[in-house]
Specification:
Largest sheet: none
Distance between the termini: 54 Å
Radius of gyration: 18 Å
Order of helices and strands: HHHHH
Number of strands: 0
Helix content: over 70%
Strand content: under 5%
């Protein structure tokens, strides 16, 4: 097998990410696929649209599968991920841009919520560290 330094770097980067960083990366990749899907729909490139929806649904399934059910929020996230998967199925099979335009901001809001939560946790950790050093 050929030794590709760029691929090795990417794999190493992913393997050293924190769970929060990986979650945000997955949401960014999800948003990228939704954007690609919308552009493909506009250009009537249905093969690319379907491939983009498939990748987005794979990410949503992964996010759903990795939820820790010991936390009550997981039940709500399961429902939300099910809804997103269903809506993306409607986009794919109905070539329905209106549904995509409805669901994309919802997913972006969820991503932004996770991003803000990550910032809040980091700020709290910094605050506790500073207090312990006083």
């Amino acid at each position: 097998m050929e030794n590709n330094p760029i691929q090795h770097y990417k794999e190493q980067s992913v393997n050293t990410m924190t769970p929060n960083e990986l979650l945000l990366l997955l949401f960014d990749e999800l948003m990228k696929n939704l954007l690609r899907c919308g552009l493909a729909l506009d250009k009537q490139e249905y093969e690319l649209m379907e491939a983009s929806v498939d990748k987005a649904q794979d990410i949503i399934r992964y996010l759903d599968d990795t939820l820790d059910d010991q936390y009550p929020i997981s039940r709500q996230l399961h429902k939300l991920y099910d809804f997103f998967g269903y809506q993306l199925g409607r986009v794919k099979f109905g070539r329905n841009k209106a549904v995509l335009d409805q669901v994309r901001p919802m997913i972006a809001d969820l991503r932004d919520t996770f991003r803000q939560a990550d910032r809040n946790v980091a700020e709290e950790a910094e605050k506790k560290l500073a207090e312990s050093q006083d």
